[in-house]
UniProtKB/TrEMBL annotation:
It comes from the Bacteria. The lineage of its organism: Bacteria, Pseudomonadati, Pseudomonadota, Alphaproteobacteria, Rhodobacterales. Residues 18-329 form the Enoyl reductase (ER) domain. One of its GO terms (molecular function) is oxidoreductase activity. It comes from Poseidonocella sedimentorum. InterPro entries: ADH-like_N (IPR013154), ER (IPR020843), GroES-like_sf (IPR011032), NAD(P)-bd_dom_sf (IPR036291), YIM1/Zinc_Alcohol_DH_Fams (IPR050700). It holds the Pfam family ADH_zinc_N_2. This is NADPH:quinone reductase.
Length: 330
């Protein structure tokens, strides 16, 4: 194992569930990688809507898994990109000096200067042409959208796809992915972001402030609700006879539709969390995504980059619901 360079690291602590102001900077001992772990110096980490939900402890039914009063690890952040500076004795996939990206998952702690993660987790070599900022967000909107559209909905050429929330981290990725798969893409957004969403591949941009996206008889093969603004019952009239409504925001009120439509009817409400897939499967998906990026068919959209010291401000901005694409801290 290579010796670590410093004795401490900086991170952000969540003492209890609450608003962004609850986030507290802390100095912690530098972790030593176990036999199959790597120590990463983090160059960039994502700040996502999902991170905010974890910080608030939402949805409530997830708290037995996350922690009753705070995330069990007590630290913030999941998506990251950086450089390996030390490895465990049995590590084979990585070596000191390698640039890597991935996610901490339920371990959290990516909004920090350093982190120890198992080499067999969701970690990938970072291509030289990909910035740390762009790499840090791939496991949020891009990977989730690829999982829902490619794996679950099996979007194919000629499908009619509606993206609800086309300008966020999931939406900007979903528009590009659906267009790459050959779909006719419609997407909702505000007038401010209409040109952005169109440039990403949406043939039809719907102003959600003045137009009804879920028109009965619209005949969408797939409706991907990236932000949870609709329900299956609201989306159902706009679906084709064998269409599917997908939403990555799972709440107790959405569960009955997922369960019942899995058994009855031709129109489906579909959910399967990407985070529950095996790391090897997620790494395979990321490999497919990297190929698209290398071929200039997909690119993460970046809104703001904050210093790590301004994590509270970054969370506050994400919570406004008005970000265009992604937010990172460095």
């Amino acid at each position: 194992m290579t010796a670590t360079m410093t004795a401490t690291r900086t991170a952000w602590h969540i003492p209890r569930y609450g608003r962004p102001e609850i986030l507290t900077p802390v100095t912690l001992p530098m972790p030593e990688p176990g036999p199959t772990e790597i120590l990463i110096r983090i160059d960039a980490s994502a700040v996502t809507r999902a991170d905010g939900m974890m910080r608030r402890g939402e949805p409530l039914f997830a708290r037995p898994f996350l922690g009753l009063r705070r995330p069990r690890n007590g630290l913030s952040g999941t998506g990251l990109s950086g450089e390996v500076i030390a490895v465990g004795a049995n590590v084979r996939r990585f070596a000191p000096g390698d640039r890597v990206f991935g996610e901490a998952g339920l371990q959290f702690g990516a909004n920090a200067s350093h982190i120890c993660l198992d080499e067999n987790g969701v970690l990938m070599p970072k291509p030289d042409a990909l910035s740390h900022e762009d790499a840090a967000v791939l496991c949020d909107g891009v990977l989730t959208s690829w999982h829902f559209l490619r794996t679950l909905a099996r979007v194919k050429r000629g499908d009619r796809v509606l993206i609800l929330g086309g300008s966020g981290s999931l939406g900007t990725a979903a528009v590009q992915i659906a267009a790459h798969l050959g779909a006719e893409v419609s997407a909702t957004t505000s007038p401010r972001n209409a040109s952005l969403v169109a440039s990403l591949g949406a043939s039809h941009v719907i102003d959600y402030t003045s137009e009804e996206a879920l028109r009965p008889g619209a005949g969408y093969d797939v409706i991907f609700d990236t932000v949870g603004v609709a329900t299956f019952s609201a989306a159902k009239p706009a679906l084709a006879n064998t269409g599917a409504y997908l939403c990555p925001v799972l709440t107790l009120s959405r569960l009955p539709a997922v369960l019942l439509t899995g058994l009855f009817g031709t129109k489906k409400s579909v959910f399967a969390a990407a985070g529950l897939e095996k790391p090897s499967r997620l790494r395979a998906m990321l490999s497919e995504i990297l190929t698209l990026i290398e071929e200039d068919r997909l690119a993460p959209v970046m809104d703001r980059i904050y210093p790590l010291t301004e994590l509270v401000e970054a969370h506050t901005f994400v919570e406004t619901g008005h970000k265009r694409g992604n937010v990172v801290v460095v």
